[in-house]
Specification:
By secondary structure, the chain is mostly helical. It has one domain. Strands 1-2 form a two-stranded antiparallel ribbon. One of its GO terms (biological process) is DIM/DIP cell wall layer assembly. Keywords: Acyltransferase, Phosphopantetheine, Phosphoprotein, Transferase.
Length: 127
């Protein structure tokens, strides 16, 4: 599971695991009306979130694309958006030869038109 060179290369054909690291970041979430009232810069709107679990797979490190696909559809339905409208997905992106392609397959199957965003471990729309 750890990359041979210690570097994560999520969603890259050279990926062979993840690199451990320490870091910190902050994202402030607040109701849109409060952010507008406070004069905050608004970078994104969270229209929906969700969680599920993979159920049975062939191993603990092997994701279940059908389960991931179902979650994306559920969250889009609850948020009243179509997958093509999704602008950013915070992906799992372990940088493994098995996990990354299955995660991409799940997102592609629901019709999300996404590409890898190299600046962060997430994916955003193709330009």
């Amino acid at each position: 599971m750890l990359a041979s060179d210690g570097h994560s290369k999520s969603f890259d054909e050279r990926a062979d695991g993840y690199g451990r690291g320490e870091g910190a970041g902050i994202v402030v979430l607040k109701p849109l009306s409060a952010a507008q009232q406070d004069g905050d810069d608004i970078y994104a709107l969270v229209r929906g979130t969700g969680v599920n679990q993979d159920g049975r797979t062939s191993g603990i490190t092997v994701p279940n694309p059908e389960s991931q696909e179902a979650l994306v559809r559920q969250v889009c339905d609850q948020a009243n958006v179509i997958p093509q409208q999704v602008r950013y997905v915070e992906a799992h992106g372990t940088g493994t030869a098995v996990g990354d392609p299955l995660e991409c397959k799940a997102l592609g199957t629901v019709g999300a038109n996404l590409r890898v965003c190299p600046a962060r471990n997430g994916i955003e729309p193709k330009q």
